[in-house]
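Is alpha-D-glucopyranose placement plausible here? Inputs below.
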Amino acid sequence: MKFNLNILGILTLPMLASIAAIAQTSPVKTPGNISTVKIEGQKVSFATQNAYGEVTVYAPNVIRVRLDKQPLGRDFSYAVIAKPLQVKADIDQTNNEITISTDSLQAKITKAPFSVAFYTRDGKVINQDEAGLTTSWIGEEVATYKKMQEGERFIGLGEKTGNLDRKGSGYTNWNTDAFGYRTDQDPIYSSIPFYVGIHNNLNYGIFLDNTYQSDFNFGASNNRFSSFSAQGGEMNYYFIYNKNLADIITSYTGLTGRMAMPPLWSLGYQQNRYSYYPDTEVLRVAQTLREKKIPADGITLDIHYMDNYKLFTWDKNRFPDPLKMSNKLNDMGFKTTVIVDPGIKVEQGYGAYERGLKDNIFIKYSDGQNYTGQVWPGWCHFPDFTSEKGRKWWGNEVKFFAKTGVSGLWNDMNEIATWGQKMPNNVLFDYDGGLTTHKEARNVFALNMARASYESARTEMKKRPFILTRAGYAGLQRYTAIWTGDNRAEDDHMLLGVRLLNSLGVSGVPFTGMDIGGFTGNSTVALFTRWMQIGAFTPYFRNHTGVNTKSSEPWAYGEEALEISRNYVNLRYRLLPYLYSSFYEATLNGQPVMRTLAIDYTHDSKVYDTQFHNQYFFGRAFLVAPSESNKGFAKVYFPKGKFYDLYTDAVEMGNQEKIIPLTTKQLPVYVKESSIIPMQSLIQNTSEKPTDTLVVHVYKGDVNNSFVYYEDDGESYNYENGVFHKRTISYDAVAKTILFGKVEGSFKSKFNNLKLVFHGFNNISSFNKSGKSIIVKDDFVSFISPISKFDPQGTANPIEGVNVKSVVVKNDKDSFTISY
Ligand code: GLC
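Reply from A.M.:
I modeled the complex. Tokens:
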């Protein structure tokens, strides 16, 4: 339709009426103009021509926006556990707009037509609705469109394939069983509808808390907007603004929660395959790890431990005495983790099935008949984890494992995976009192399964349990670690895995892992060793492979691969004090253990260059540059600052790209200047005590730095009552001091002595402790052992290491200063 302007060139009232008529008949419904406004404390409620809304100040830097076509419904979330903070917020309105001002930002709601924009306190646009599109509905689908800012990039969104910078791509959140997924496949297992936008030296986070299938568009097939939409329910998002990207992660995990301290053993090396059985085979693998001196803490048992894949059973022939086996493993320093799937086999007389029927906890079709879907055991029913009753039932069943000495629960197939992968939408879920369909509940099924496992295991297993899940939703970090499912034994997959874990880290999940060595297919020797090296620098370090692949234990690829693998597993164990402290930080402020460079070098465009986007920090100190296994050279980007080669202490200046030669023996790893890295002597598992000296490596640098050292018993919840040992170690580059702060907490450290190892301080010969001079030794440090000379005619590999200065002091609880 075309509107002819009248002779004065202006729209007349009848013309405007026709435009309004189009808006009315358009299949895309917008809210229209705001008609009524109510301001109460930190909340603005309003009605528009076609919608209802609420904008709430959740914290000075967090604003929540809700909109619906009907009056807002039940306010319920599986993800958000925080309530709004009482804050100072000024809310004013004029005829045209409502302005919300906090100490951190300003939000402006335009009244005619409705749209929202967020500004810094000094008036810079952080994020704004795309005028004209704002929020709208197509049937039940609701979408919000944000104006694409100049140079805008997007990162996060949890476990999503593709590049670090998601600009130009679109993604769907719909938990999916993605066996052997492609490196660009979407969706895969879990859904975390949270991303970070970056532009013009600003960054913000948006969390869409809607569990229906959601779609994110970061400028895919359009040059106008980024958008997020859901197939049903309300538009319900949290806008987060912080100056530093790292703080956005802290704010986001302030909303959705943080992990508890993991059991120390779960940070050790874990051995798995689909499947080790019978018990003698499990013990053989454990014994071989010990004989070959590959430190390890965990064995995981895949589905063949069960009697015909029936949950809460053991196959009596393969595992006649599971408690005896777990005890034996325990004596050898191994903890047992078992797989649990949600499908309960439909079979009369089978205990879990009968109990589930009796307690009426299975999900049902809308006509009340239990839903039946096929998975490993055949036709199954599925507990409703979105009901309190279902979670309790599961919790009670899980006690079975506590009785057989199991320490970890590996929650699998919980997307829900069923053969055919087409679960009917008319299956109903309790959704904790908000009865709903598969459409709204699917994405939170796994989160609630992990929650039920965690809550029960926490009380039943007495010690901290280890919980692992395949699928999940925002907030999963409160209950569980996650791994990236059925990857392939291919170089691209190894690197994709790194990006998936980095992205999960941005999205609030610190405890992450991938199948080291690849799940489908067979690794080459070079790929396996490179993957083991990278695995040592990932939060959850588990080797796993599929049912019909070749053996994939560290000794299955020949002597050289074994020695290389051992080097890196050894290094991992020596680094446990550093790693454990990094996890402690995750419990405090949600910072991931694996950090894409985008977190700390957000506005450095090189970080997003696909040549470098796999690089990451492991904790705060190690810059890891993963690269394919079959290349002779790699290009590494050193961001601002100064970096030390881990193996040689050679210094690389920042803001530099560099081509480096690769060998299969070493993974390129660098230490950031001014880093403080506590390490221990080599142990074969975490129940073994290291020597009583904590070795603290300090790398000379031009910037100040601090590290919170944290220790506790590694297994109980006593730390929640102050039974920990914690101190801040600060490096002051100007004052030339290393300050050991006063110890907090009542736990007695394992370490009576501290050995400080100084890297890059080689011209300095005098150190003192709180004024008194201390003996300085010339020392030599090596992080990996030379690989054997396998060819008798060949030349021996030299020991690689570095000359350093070291001092040993008592690990006093009071504060002291080391000066140089
Ligand atoms: C799924 C899991 C895999 C496991 C297999 C058998 O494919 O992702 O890790 O080994 O099921 O339980």
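Short version: The longest strand covers residues 802-810.
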